[in-house]
């Protein structure tokens, strides 16, 4: 099969992938970096399904988190801080901080300077992703 053309074919391919995964897992044939008939067939069907999804299903790709936001989150996680604590430390109210972290509010120059001075975040990272 070169291409999935109908929803029925897509659903059948999905069922086949699920069956192959179950069989391969039961036989210990689905470990990382394995190359066998199961992994090749799963890859083939998965690519066909992906192509069908791109063409017919209009599935919106997941948004990737900005490396700057990930860096801020990592800092607070490693210091056992909650979002409320982070907002207070950076001199903004919790609502503003939440909007910044979710990407709904842009980072101001003042806030960017605080990220650098208070959290020690690399200025180049701030300039690139703020």
What keywords describe this structure?
single chain, 130 residues, mainly alpha, 434 Repressor (Amino-terminal Domain), 2 domains, elongated
Helical fraction: 55-70%
How large is the radius of gyration? 22 Å
How much beta, percentage-wise? under 5%
CATH arch. level architecture of the largest domain: Orthogonal Bundle
Count structural domains: 2
Query: How many angstroms separate the termini?
Result: 46 Å
Question: So, the CATH homologous superfamily of the largest domain?
Answer: lambda repressor-like DNA-binding domains
Helical region count?
Answer: 7
Instruction: Tell me, rounded to a whole number, the average pLDDT.
Output: 91
Structure description:
With about 130 residues, the chain is mainly α. The chain has 2 domains: about 5-55; about 65-130, lambda repressor-like DNA-binding domains (434 Repressor (Amino-terminal Domain), Orthogonal Bundle), CATH 1.10.260. Helices cover about 65% and strands about 0% of the residues. The longest helix has 21 residues, at about 35-55. It is elongated, with a radius of gyration of 22 Å. The mean pLDDT is about 90.
């Amino acid at each position: 099969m070169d291409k999935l053309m109908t929803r029925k074919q897509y659903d059948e391919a999905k069922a086949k992938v699920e069956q192959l995964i179950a069989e391969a897992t039961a036989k210990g044939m689905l470990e990382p970096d394995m190359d066998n008939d199961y992994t090749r067939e799963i890859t083939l069907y998965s690519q066909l399904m992906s192509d069908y999804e791109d063409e017919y299903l209009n599935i919106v790709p997941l948004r990737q988190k900005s490396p700057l936001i990930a860096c801020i989150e990592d800092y607070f996680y490693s210091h056992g801080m909650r979002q409320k604590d982070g907002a207070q430390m950076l001199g903004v109210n919790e609502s503003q901080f939440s909007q910044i972290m979710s990407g709904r509010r842009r980072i101001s120059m003042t806030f960017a300077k605080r990220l650098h001075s208070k959290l020690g975040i690399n200025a180049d990272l701030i300039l690139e992703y703020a």
